[in-house]
Amino acid sequence: MKTLLNIIWLVLAGAWLALGYVAAGIVCCLLVVTIPFGIASFRIASYVLWPFGRTIVDKPTAGAWSTIGNVVWVVVAGVWLAIGHVATAIPLFVSIIGIPMGIANLKLIPVSLLPLGKQIVPTDRAFAAYGR
């Protein structure tokens, strides 16, 4: 089921959103100071291409620098990427088959606003500690 949802997601929303993240990553890599933002943007672009079966969790080693970086990120690219997620979610909600993908799209808004201090993990590993 995850593969089918990922293929539909890729065609309807994933490719366009990933292009936005790649563009933001390229812009951020132009300056030396913003290279960590570019790397985070490329990481999220790969997640946006194939999101089902993976999730984003807080990185336990993230410190104050990631918080400061997230503030800068919101101003530079985060708001625009969040608007892209909302603009993509609206047509998905209109179609019946796109409702789960529209929900997934809205769940990506927090990470588009605050990408630093997060890591992408498979869904079976993210909550494995709770079951043991």
- Total beta strands: 2
First-to-last CA distance: 26 Å
Structural class: mainly alpha
Share of helix, binned? over 70%
For the largest beta sheet, what order do the strands appear in spatially? Answer: 1-2
Descriptive keywords:
7 helices; mainly alpha; two-stranded antiparallel ribbon; globular
What does this 3D model show about the protein?
With 132 residues, the protein is mainly alpha-helical. It contains 7 helices and 2 strands, in the order ααβαααβαα. The chain has helices at 2-29, 35-49, 64-94, 99-107, 109-113, 123-126, 128-131; strands at 54-58, 118-122. The protein has a two-stranded antiparallel sheet. Helix 1 packs antiparallel against helix 2 (35-49), helix 1 packs across helix 3 (64-94) and helix 3 (64-94) packs antiparallel against helix 4 (99-107).
Short description:
By secondary structure, the protein is mostly helical. The chain has seven helices and two strands.
Blueprint (SSEs and pairs):
Elements: H1 2-29, H2 35-49, E1 54-58, H3 64-94, H4 99-107, H5 109-113, E2 118-122, H6 123-126, H7 128-131
Antiparallel strand pairs: 1-2
Helix pairs in contact: 1-2, 1-3, 3-4
